[in-house]
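Quick one before lunch.
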Amino acid sequence: MAIVRFVLEDDTHVEVPCEEGGRLADVCDASPKGVVPFSCRSANCGTCRVVVVEGAGELESHDDEELDLLEIFNATATQRLACCARLKAGSGLVVLRPARDDE
Ligand code: FES
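Model of the FE2/S2 (inorganic) cluster complex:
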């Protein structure tokens, strides 16, 4: 079973066990409300940018839409869009936190 750990602003965290593989957005939706904010859910707004603190290799590669929007935000290489990213089959622990507006 995969685990996605959300690090919160106060440095506490929430862990969500999930199926191996599948949409990160579904895991976010299964977490306590508001852990990762969403708006468009279609790689248009950047609201769902997250920083992958650990386990980036547990996620499938970016698709072109995700890469294009991350480039617009000058996002660091550790950022992903939670509405686009997918966990790999056989995935383990992924640690992430919402990206701040200034990063
Ligand atoms: S919710 Fe808009 S880019 Fe992900």
